[in-house]
């Protein structure tokens, strides 16, 4: 650490190293505090003649399918300065992901893996509180006074796969600096990239004293500009600072847990028949069609899916979604056959995509003992429960799903004698 570097850093209180797992996919690099403090130390791009700033980082874990990248910004701009009546102001920020070029004496930004430019709604810094010393800072809920206001912006890099180490760069234009200087004063002159002062809780900084910086002022670099000025390149003397940023994996695809065949038995209620996941040993559904309902349960809430009947005579409705469940109504389900219903493109509300699942069911009316043939044994089971209340242990005998166990069910079993399913 050189004291000179600290003059670039917009001061803030130390932020606690209380870090947490990310709301989206699991983090593979995390230095954004889980509880964002009112402000964090930061690098002002206009104040330091900066076009791009970032770091070389190493990801933790093994997953490399990137999802969200979230970084902390610190805004020092006040709405009153610009006569603004809106709660935010818009500004584009570019996020660059580079391979690490190790061909030279020091790791350098290599080829671009991915880049995104997105215009974000930046919140204004709260107005000054005259009771703060100097009268220019704002007073946060913690009782302390701050000159900047910390918030996060998020890029969605779903679809980008990263190597173990990358160099990232955050770039945006200000009045005088950046790829295309704006040429006029604006709140972007008071927009800073937030910095962490602790090692990341996930992933690592293999060279903790370095950063990557494009600044137009030679003296900003630790080497006085000897290795180049106004280029995005390695700089040193950054301990303990690094960009406050979190890289999260793409949320995993939703996973199928179980499937049931669901029927409403009149006033007796709704009863689910659990279905075997073994395609070559499918469960027999003995309750009467031709309308059937299959409910697929996934490991997390689902928002979309595609349904296809891939075997048998049945027509599937568009799926409906309730929490983790995907319901598929089938019509025209013929008796004495196997039906396979497949789900694809299953997407969860947390952003997971690419889930799938399939279930194979044998439909054979009145095969209440599920032997794939209707015999006197099935008839005897129905007969033995006649006039009993339909409940969770005998609902399968209510083959017409009327809500009562009656001679009508017995009649259906009798009429179905000797019908059978083919070998599965
Ligand atoms: Ca049977
Ligand atoms: Ca019945």
What does this molecule look like?
This protein has two domains: 3-249, no CATH class; 256-416, Immunoglobulins (Immunoglobulin-like, Sandwich), CATH 2.60.40. The chain has three helices and 26 strands. Strand 8 and strand 9 form a beta hairpin. It has helices at 3-6, 376-384, 407-416, and strands at 9-10, 27-30, 42-44, 50-58, 66-75, 88-101, 108-123, 138-139, 145-146, 149-156, 165-171, 191-196, 211-215, 233-235, 242-243, 245-249, 256-264, 270-274, 283-285, 292-298, 302-311, 315-316, 320-322, 325-331, 337-348, 355-363. Helix 2 runs antiparallel to helix 3. It starts with a helix and ends in an 8-residue tail after the last helix. The longest helix is centred in the last third of the chain and has 10 residues, at 407-416. The protein is mainly β and 424 residues long. The strands form five sheets. Strands 1, 2, 3, 5, 10, 12, 15 and 16 form an eight-stranded antiparallel β-sheet that branches. Strands 7-6-11-4-13-14 form a six-stranded antiparallel β-sheet, with no helix packed on it. Strands 17, 18, 20, 22, 23 and 24 form a six-stranded antiparallel β-sheet that branches. Bound molecules: calcium ion (2 copies). One calcium ion binds at residues 367, 369, 371, 373-375, 377-378.
The helical percent reads under 10%
Oligomeric state as shown: single chain
Heterogens: calcium ion
Low-confidence stretches: 13-23
The rounded Rg comes to 32 Å
The count of strands amounts to 26
Mean pLDDT: 94
Gap between N and C termini: 72 Å
């Amino acid at each position: 650490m050189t004291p000179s570097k600290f003059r670039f850093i917009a001061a803030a209180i130390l932020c606690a190293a209380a870090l947490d797992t990310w709301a989206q996919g699991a983090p593979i690099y995390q230095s954004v505090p889980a509880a964002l403090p009112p402000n964090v130390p930061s690098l002002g791009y206009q104040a330091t003649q900066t076009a791009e700033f970032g770091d070389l980082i190493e990801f933790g874990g093994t997953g490399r399918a990137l999802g969200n990248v979230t970084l902390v910004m610190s805004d020092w701009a006040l709405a009153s300065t610009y006569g603004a009546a809106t709660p935010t102001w818009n500004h584009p920020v570019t996020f660059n992901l580079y391979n690490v070029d190790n061909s030279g004496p020091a790791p350098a930004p290599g080829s671009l893996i991915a880049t995104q430019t997105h215009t974000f709604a930046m919140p204004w810094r709260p107005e000054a509180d005259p009771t703060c010393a100097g009268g220019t800072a704002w007073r946060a809920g913690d009782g302390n006074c701050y000159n900047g206001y910390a918030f996060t912006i998020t890029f969605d890099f779903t679809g980008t796969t990263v190597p173990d180490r990358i160099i990232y760069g955050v770039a945006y234009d200000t009045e005088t600096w950046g790829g295309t200087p704006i040429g006029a004063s604006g709140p972007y002159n008071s927009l800073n990239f937030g910095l962490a002062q602790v090692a990341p809780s996930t992933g690592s900084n293999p060279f903790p004293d370095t950063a990557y910086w494009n600044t137009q002022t030679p003296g900003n670099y630790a080497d006085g500009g000897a290795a180049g000025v106004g280029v995005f390149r390695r700089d040193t003397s950054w301990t303990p600072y690094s960009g406050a940023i979190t890289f999260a994996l793409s949320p995993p695809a939703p996973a199928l847990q179980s499937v049931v065949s669901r029927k409403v038995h009149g006033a007796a209620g709704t009863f689910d028949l659990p279905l075997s996941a073994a395609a070559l040993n499918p469960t027999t559904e003995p309750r009467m069609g031709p309308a059937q309902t299959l409910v697929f349960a996934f490991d997390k809430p689902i928002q979309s899916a595609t349904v296809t009947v891939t075997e048998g005579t049945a027509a599937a409705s568009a799926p409906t979604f309730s929490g983790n469940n995907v319901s598929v109504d089938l019509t025209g389900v013929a008796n004495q056959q196997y039906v396979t219903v497949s789900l694809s493109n299953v997407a969860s509300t947390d952003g997971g995509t690419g889930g799938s699942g399939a279930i194979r069911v044998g439909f054979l009316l009145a095969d209440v003992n599920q032997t794939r043939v209707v015999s006197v044994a099935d008839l005897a089971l129905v007969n033995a429960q006649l006039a009993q209340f339909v409940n969770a242990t005998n609902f399968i005998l209510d083959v017409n799903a009327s809500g009562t166990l009656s001679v009508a069910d017995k009649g259906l079993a009798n009429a179905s004698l000797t019908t059978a399913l083919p070998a599965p």
